[in-house]
Amino acid sequence: MAAEQARRLAARGHNVTVITQRAREGLPDEVKENGLRVIRYGSASQFARFGGLSRTDLAEVSKTVRRLSKGAKFDVAILHHPFAAQGFFNAGLKIPTLYLCHTSGAREAAIEGTRRRL
After folding, report:
1. Residue 92 gets which letter from DSSP?
2. Beta bridge mates, 77
3. Residue 115 has pLDDT above 60, yes or no
């Protein structure tokens, strides 16, 4: 849903920056693709060290957003994931924000914890 929203906003002429987890090793930190600026954070070693994807979101999104805000002005932030959203809010920026809740963050953390034990 987030990817489709980003593509459609870019197609309408908006400058769109996507901040997302690194889905797999070897992907570049930053790339321009299909009219989008995509910035990736995290790595397999970070995910293991911080205790999973969600805890990495809390730490890395905040740092990434602060770094980006020094060189660019953002009109709005659209957030799709509870832990990434909390990382964004922890950055303390004054950017109008729309948060879309797709799933229960507590349920997602429980599922992630189950996967780690397996």
Report:
1. T
2. 97
3. no
